[in-house]
């Protein structure tokens, strides 16, 4: 029989490597304990810790931070890339903010459609129980540094749906929120003010190259 | 077929009661649960009602009520000699302890999600439905929230 035939047939494929079908004799997979394998996130954390501690001990951290902070801060402050993600009626206002009347692009905003190219997540509507894991996934897919804006009453506290059986009572119950913009719905000017507040926050809070967000 | 003929034929069918005109081209009737499948098959095959507009579930405590809005949009029916689209409003009353009825999603494919929604929010079981899962709420949600006796346990604190 040809190799293609074996590959297409799972019954035959099982027999190619080991002759035995006795479950006692087949060796089980080793348990995937933390002591056995170094996962990629553990490796990254180890590298992060090592570099951070070495730079801290030699005093390089202070120097590099001081040198890179103005440059990094300037770049982050004037090019926040929000995720182009709309939930409910505040998304219409978000679109209106980009329209010629309130041209929000002059603050450096560029909407991107992939969370991997973004650093601001705008939660603009009520988050349902069914949406919550998806929104959490979107947040986790964004690269550091990242900020979250809760836009409108629904994203702040649940709004009119605060005691609903399926709406989460605020986005800050499951993700860290940096700026809250009240309004129902939020006007485009308020959204612009929210982004200016975020710029202010970045200018005051964000460190340089050695990023540690407490 | 004229609309008054349809009225007479529907009146003579088994399990049908309280047939009435509620508008010029709308007939409202009550239907027994046990003959629903036969009735709906005849309605689709013989009387040209080829569109299932709505399936609504109502909680009239203690009983449930299902309302089917079925439309004939092809112009086969006429009202006083004028071709006109027509609608039949079918009410089915269900017991609270066993709210189940035969599915019509094999007759009208669009009824599939309507029935899933009625199951999701009101807890009515459609026998013979190909895929009776929740539509709007997440999997694993306990209870059916649009029932009048549904109590949710979050947000119990007083404001």
From TrEMBL, chain B:
PROSITE patterns named among the record's database cross-references: COMPLEX1_30K
Pfam families according to UniProt: Complex1_30kDa (PF00329)
Domain named NADH:ubiquinone oxidoreductase 30kDa subunit: which ranges?
Answer: 39-152
- Keyword annotations of the record: Transport
User: What GO MF annotations does this protein's record show?
Assistant: NADH dehydrogenase (ubiquinone) activity; oxidoreductase activity, acting on NAD(P)H
Q: Which InterPro entries has this protein been placed in?
A: NADH_quin_OxRdtase_su_C/D-like, NADH_UbQ_OxRdtase_30kDa_su, NADH_UbQ_OxRdtase_CS
- Top-rank taxon: Archaea
- SUPFAM superfamilies from the entry? Nqo5-like (SSF143243)
Q: Which PANTHER family match?
A: NADH DEHYDROGENASE [UBIQUINONE] IRON-SULFUR PROTEIN 3, MITOCHONDRIAL, NADH DEHYDROGENASE UBIQUINONE IRON-SULFUR PROTEIN 3
- This protein is called what? NADH:ubiquinone oxidoreductase 30kDa subunit domain-containing protein
Specify the species: Marine Group III euryarchaeote CG-Epi3
């Amino acid at each position: 029989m040809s190799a293609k035939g074996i590959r297409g047939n799972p019954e035959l494929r099982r027999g190619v490597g080991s002759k035995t079908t006795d479950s006692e004799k087949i060796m089980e997979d080793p348990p995937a304990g933390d002591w056995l394998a170094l996962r990629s996130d553990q490796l990254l954390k180890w590298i992060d810790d090592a570099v951070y501690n070495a730079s801290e001990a030699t005093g390089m951290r202070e120097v590099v931070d001081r040198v890179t902070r103005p440059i990094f801060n300037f770049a982050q402050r004037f090019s926040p890339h929000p995720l182009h993600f709309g939930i409910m009626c505040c998304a219409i206002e978000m679109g209106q903010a980009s329209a010629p009347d309130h041209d929000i692009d002059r603050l450096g905003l560029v909407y991107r459609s992939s969370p991997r190219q973004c650093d601001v997540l705008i939660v603009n509507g009520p988050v349902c129980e069914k949406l919550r894991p998806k929104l959490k996934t979107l947040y986790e897919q964004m690269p550091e540094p990242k900020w979250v804006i809760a836009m409108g009453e629904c994203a702040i506290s649940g709004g009119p749906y605060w005691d609903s059986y399926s709406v989460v009572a605020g986005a800050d119950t499951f993700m860290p929120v940096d700026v809250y913009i009240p309004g129902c719905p939020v006007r485009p000017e308020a959204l612009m003010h929210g982004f200016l507040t975020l710029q202010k926050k970045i200018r005051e809070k964000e460190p340089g190259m050695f990023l540690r967000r407490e | 077929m004229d609309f008054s003929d349809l009225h007479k034929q529907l009146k003579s069918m088994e399990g049908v009661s309280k047939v009435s005109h509620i508008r010029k081209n709308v007939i409202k009737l009550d239907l027994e649960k046990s003959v629903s499948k036969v009735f709906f098959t005849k309605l689709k095959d013989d009387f040209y009602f080829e569109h299932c507009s709505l399936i609504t579930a109502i909680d009239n405590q203690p009983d449930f009520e299902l309302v089917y809005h079925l439309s004939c949009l092809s112009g086969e029916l006429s009202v006083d000699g004028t071709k006109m689209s027509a609608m039949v409003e079918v009410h089915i009353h269900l017991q609270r302890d066993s709210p189940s009825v035969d599915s019509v999603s094999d007759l009208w494919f669009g009824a599939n999600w309507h029935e899933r929604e009625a199951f999701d929010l009101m807890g009515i079981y459609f026998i013979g439905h190909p895929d009776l899962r929740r539509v709007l709420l997440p999997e694993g949600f306990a209870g059916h929230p649009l029932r009048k006796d549904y109590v949710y346990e979050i947000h119990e604190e007083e404001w």
